C-alpha cells in the first residue's frame, strides 16, 4: 500500500532534483513519459526497377511545385503527368533535372526532380511520375490568408515518428516545415531510402520545406564533403531566392516570407550565408508578406541541458539582422523537447524581438532531452520533453495561432497554444525602419 506512494515520491524527487520537469496533469497524476521506440524496419524492395519511389514535393517558385522521386532504372523518364481530376492528365512536364550519387558502396539510383506549373492556388492535382506507377495527389497552398503550417523537426524513423506523422496527417495544413534532422541515416544510405518511403504518404501530398540539421552532414574527413545525400534528395528552391546553396534559402507563400537558415554551414559576418541573408531581408516587402519567419536547426534560446550554447555563435552573427528586420517567429529543432519563448532579443525579454520555438521532438531514436536548467529563465514560457508536432495557423496579417500537440500515449493532445500578433501591426515596426536600413545597407 505504502510502497507505490514512496516510489512515486522518490520518482518525483529524482525528477525535480535532476532538472527533469514533471508534467502535471489536470487530475494531478504524474505523467510517465513513454520511452524512445525502435527504428522502424521497412521491407527491402527489389531494385533495378523503374517504379517511382520515395515521392515528395516542395515549393519551387511562385505557383510551381517540384516533384522528386527515385528510380533504380536509368532509362526511366523524368516526366510528370498531372491534372485536376483523377486519371485525367491534361498537362505534362519534364522541366527539371536528375542526379545520383555514390557513397562508398552505395548507389542512390536515379533521383528525379521535375517542376510542374503554373498551378492554381488551393487546388488538388493528381499526378503520376515517370509515366508509370501509382497516382498521387497534392494540394497547392492558398494564395492568401489563412494558411496553416505543420512543424516537426528531428523526425527520424521510429514508432514515435510514425505517430507524429499520423497526427500531422489528421490535421488540415498546407505546408510542412522541417527545421532539420530528417532521416537519421548517419552514413547508412539505405536509411535515407526507408525514410523516403515512410514519409511519402505525407510528403507526396503537401510540400515539405526543409533545412538541414547535423544528421544530414555525413562528411568523412578528406574524403566526403558534407550533405551529399541531403542535397541530392531534398532539393530546395534556393536559386529563386538568389542563394548560392541548397543549405540556405527563402520562399514566399500567402503573405509569409520564410527564411531557411543553415546551422552547419558558414554563418559569420564574412560568409556567403550572412551576405545572402542581408540581401534577402532587404528584399522583403512587408506590405506583400506581413509575416516573417525563420527556421534553423540549433536553437538560439534553449534552457535544456542538451546542446546548450551550440547556437550561440550563429546567434551572435545573425540575430541583429533578424531583429532589425522584425522577424516574428524563429522555429528550431536539435533539442529533443519542446520550448516556447516570450519575444526576445540579445538573450533577454524584448517586445520587438522574435518568439523562439524549439520543436525538435518529432520522434527520433535518440529519445527525449529530459533535463532543463532550473530555475526556468524568465524568457521561457513553456517547456516540456515529449514527442509531438506544432501547428501554425496564420489567420490574417495581424494574427497567428500556434499550438503544440504532444503525442500522449499515441493520442495527439493540444498542450500549449498562444496567439501571436505580427510585429508589422505593432509599434515596433515603424520605429525599427531607420535602424533596419542602417544595419542592412552598411556593407
Ligand atoms: C484577424 O484575426 C483575428 C483573430 O481571428 C481577429 O480578431 C481580427 O479581427 C482579424 N483582423 C482582421 C483585420 O480581419
Ligand atoms: Fe540535431
From TrEMBL:
Pfam families (UniProt xref): Metallophos, Metallophos_C, Pur_ac_phosph_N
EC number(s) stated in the UniProt entry for this protein: 3.1.3.2
Class in the EC hierarchy, top level: hydrolase
Signal sequence region: 1-22
Record domain Purple acid phosphatase C-terminal: where: 354-412
Molecular function in Gene Ontology: acid phosphatase activity; metal ion binding
Keyword Transferase: no
Alphabetic keyword roster: Glycoprotein, Hydrolase, Signal
Catalytic reaction(s) noted: a phosphate monoester + H2O = an alcohol + phosphate
Domain Purple acid phosphatase N-terminal: 52-137
Domain Calcineurin-like phosphoesterase: 148-338
Claim: Transmembrane is one of the keywords in the record: no
Similarity annotation: Belongs to the metallophosphoesterase superfamily. Purple acid phosphatase family.
Protein name (record): Purple acid phosphatase
Organism listed in the record: Dioscorea zingiberensis
Biological classification of the source: Eukaryota, Viridiplantae, Streptophyta, Embryophyta, Tracheophyta
Amino acid at each position: 500500500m505504502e510502497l507505490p506512494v514512496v516510489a512515486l515520491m522518490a520518482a518525483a524527487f529524482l525528477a525535480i532534483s535532476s532538472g527533469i520537469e514533471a508534467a502535471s496533469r489536470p487530475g494531478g497524476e504524474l505523467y510517465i513519459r513513454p520511452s524512445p521506440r525502435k527504428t522502424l524496419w521497412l521491407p527491402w524492395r527489389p531494385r533495378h526497377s523503374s517504379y517511382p519511389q520515395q515521392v515528395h514535393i516542395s515549393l519551387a517558385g511562385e505557383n510551381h511545385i517540384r516533384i522528386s522521386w527515385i528510380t533504380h532504372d536509368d532509362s526511366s523518364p523524368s516526366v510528370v503527368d498531372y491534372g485536376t481530376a483523377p486519371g485525367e492528365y491534361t498537362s505534362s512536364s519534364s522541366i527539371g533535372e536528375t542526379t545520383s550519387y555514390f557513397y562508398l558502396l552505395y548507389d542512390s539510383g536515379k533521383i528525379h526532380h521535375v517542376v510542374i506549373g503554373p498551378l492554381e492556388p488551393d487546388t488538388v492535382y493528381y499526378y503520376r511520375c515517370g509515366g508509370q506507377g501509382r497516382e498521387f495527389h497534392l494540394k497547392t497552398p492558398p494564395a492568401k490568408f489563412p494558411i496553416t503550417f505543420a512543424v516537426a523537426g528531428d523526425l527520424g524513423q521510429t514508432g514515435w515518428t510514425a505517430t507524429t506523422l499520423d497526427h500531422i496527417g489528421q490535421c488540415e495544413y498546407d505546408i510542412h516545415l522541417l527545421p532539420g534532422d530528417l532521416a537519421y541515416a548517419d552514413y547508412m544510405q539505405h536509411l535515407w531510402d526507408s525514410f523516403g518511403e515512410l514519409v511519402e504518404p505525407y510528403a507526396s501530398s503537401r510540400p515539405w520545406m526543409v533545412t538541414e540539421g547535423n544528421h544530414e552532414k555525413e562528411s568523412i574527413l578528406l574524403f566526403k564533403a558534407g550533405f551529399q545525400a541531403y542535397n541530392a534528395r531534398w532539393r530546395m528552391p534556393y536559386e529563386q531566392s538568389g542563394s548560392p546553396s541548397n543549405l540556405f534559402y527563402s520562399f514566399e507563400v500567402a503573405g509569409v516570407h520564410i527564411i531557411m537558415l543553415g546551422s552547419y554551414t558558414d554563418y559569420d559576418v564574412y560568409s556567403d550565408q550572412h551576405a545572402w541573408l542581408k540581401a534577402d531581408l532587404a528584399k522583403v516587402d512587408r506590405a506583400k508578406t506581413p509575416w516573417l519567419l525563420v527556421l534553423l536547426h540549433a536553437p538560439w534560446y534553449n534552457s535544456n541541458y542538451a546542446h546548450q550554447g551550440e547556437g550561440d555563435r550563429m546567434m551572435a552573427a545573425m540575430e541583429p539582422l533578424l531583429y532589425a528586420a522584425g522577424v516574428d517567429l524563429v522555429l528550431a529543432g536539435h533539442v529533443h523537447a519542446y520550448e516556447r519563448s516570450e519575444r526576445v532579443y540579445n538573450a533577454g525579454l524584448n517586445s520587438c524581438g522574435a518568439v523562439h520555438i524549439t520543436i525538435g521532438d518529432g520522434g527520433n531514436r535518440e529519445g527525449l532531452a529530459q533535463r532543463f536548467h532550473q530555475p526556468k529563465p524568465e524568457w521561457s514560457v513553456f517547456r516540456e520533453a515529449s514527442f509531438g508536432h506544432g501547428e501554425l495557423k496564420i489567420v490574417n496579417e495581424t494574427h497567428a495561432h500556434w499550438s503544440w500537440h504532444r503525442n500522449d500515449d499515441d493520442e495527439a493532445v493540444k498542450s500549449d497554444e498562444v496567439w501571436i500578433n505580427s510585429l508589422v501591426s505593432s509599434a515596433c515596426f515603424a520605429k525599427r525602419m531607420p535602424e533596419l536600413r542602417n544595419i542592412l545597407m552598411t556593407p
